[in-house]
Amino acid sequence: MQQHLSTLLLHSLQTSAFPAVLITNSVVQPLNSGGIGKVVASNSSSFKEGDLVSGMLEWANYIVVPEGKGLTKIDNSAGLPLSYYLGVLGEQSHIV
C-alpha cells in the first residue's frame, strides 16, 4: 500500500539581489533563511491555496515543502506589511 504525503508548493515572496546558492566543498546548496511564502498548490488539509506562511525557506521563486513542515500560517487580516512577520510578529514573538 502506497502512502500519500501532503505537499505544498509555495511562491516565495522574499527577494534578494544576492546569489541564492552556497558552495561548500564543491557542493552547491540552496541558501535558506526566514521567509514568507504564498501557497499556490496544496493537497494538505492544514494549508490551502492563497494561504500566507512563514518559516525557513530556500531562496528560490518556487519551493516544494513536504507536509508543510516548519511552516506557520500567517493571519494578516490587519493588512500589515509582510516583513513584520519576519521580525516582531514572527517566530521571535513566540519565545517566552
Question: Which key phrases capture this entry?
Answer:
5-stranded antiparallel β-sheet, 7 strands, two-stranded antiparallel sheet, globular, 42% strand, mainly beta, single chain, 96 residues, Quinone Oxidoreductase, Chain A, domain 1
Please state roughly what percent of the residues sit in beta strands, choosing from under 5%, 5-15%, 15-25%, 25-35%, 35-45% or over 45%: 35-45%
Count the E strands.
Answer: 7
Could you give me the name of the CATH homologous superfamily?
Answer: Medium-chain alcohol dehydrogenases, catalytic domain
Helices and strands, in order, run as EEEEEEE
Residues in helices, as a percent range: under 10%
N→C terminal distance: 43 Å
Structure commentary:
The protein is mainly β and 96 residues long. The chain has a single domain, classed as Quinone Oxidoreductase, Chain A, domain 1 (Alpha-Beta Complex), CATH 3.90.180. Helices cover 0% and strands 42% of the residues. The protein has no helices and seven strands. It has a five-stranded antiparallel β-sheet, with no helix packed on it. Strand 2 and strand 3 form a beta hairpin. The mean pLDDT is 75.
